[in-house]
Amino acid sequence: MTFIWIGTLRRARGGAIRGNCDAPLAVIRSYARRVAKLRVLVLGAGFGGLELSTMLSEALGDDVEVTLIDEGDAFVFGYSKLDVMFGRATLGEVRLPYSAVAKPGVRLLRETITAIDPRARRVTTDAGEHEGDVLVIALGADYDLDATPGLREANEFYSVAGAARLGELLPGFTRGRALIGVCGAPFKCPPAPSECALLLDELLRERGVRDDCEIAFTVPLPSPVPPSPDTSRALLAAFEQRGIAFLPGKRIASLDPARRVAVYEDGDELPYDLFLGVPRHRAPDVVIETGICVDGYIPVDSATLQTELPGVYAIGDVATPGVPKAGVFAEGGARVVAKALIARVRGGDGPAPYDGRGSCYIEFGGEGVARVDVDFLSGPQPTGTFQAPSEALAAEKAQFGATRRARWFGLD
Q1: Given Cys at both, which of 126, 257, 282, 297 links 153, Cβ 3.0 to 4.6 Å?
Q2: Cis peptide leading into residue 353 (ω within 30°)
């Protein structure tokens, strides 16, 4: 038999509840909601973690307890690294401080994650332990510089520090071959190396030294953006027009910085005077140590982003839902998980399956920005639609960043 005590509730010492018998049932229900809040533990404050936390806060407010953990002190959009590298913005201008995140139901902790127990949904950091009813792993992919011997002594532009360093080196590059080299696939933001080649061409022309410089771009993929032949054709046409050598289908195995040569897997060598590298990617060590990775990343259900463990999700670059590694896809996955958790708290239908759709902006130089809209999961094979460079798309890209600055950080 179940008894319902209807009384005025108040907290006594030690957390005990005492009361009399004149309170409405709504008071008890209100108290029950407070003590039974859904605890959501989110690891990583990138595109996925920020969007998930924001959606939960907007929909549930203080009816949810979101703990968002990241070891960094600021977020930087991936495309902003090219802005820093090519002198369009300073590092200070593109950093969005986590201290600006202030949302009902969300606490953001700057801590370093040292261990993850996905079965217990427990995380150990340098400051203690945290547990959740739901665990969402959104830690992205790390750069494995040691997987390409010699890369540490050369240059890469995928990390914030690497892009800033190249921003200091580029003014001194006035002659010779610049080699943009992708050291492995998959890699984040597939159009970014092509953007790097086009923006480097623009920079060298502005400085009047383009005729004294070569630009080559080598990638293990068969084309710049394989899911979208139209996008690849547009990029290849731009490369040809601007004298950029495109070298597809071969992976750089190592670099010899002393001789300034890149060595392919088949032993062929390609000389350079300035190397601009894209490192190989892999899941962070703390994720690999959980034992739930397959081929270096966390397998998930493509429709729900759930792992094989109950209450555990993985979104973004750390997971393998069958989409590219790019922030827009991490954000899309976060929306699916957020809607599922909101339905769990509020009731109602869950979300539609994750559709694997997203749009990526591509800098062509000058005032022109293109866009590729890709769909990876709703049809029998991935598709991509290309929109030619325009000032309107450049404005759209700026708005993309502005809306996320406002929603995630409350910044103008």
Answers
A1: 257
A2: no
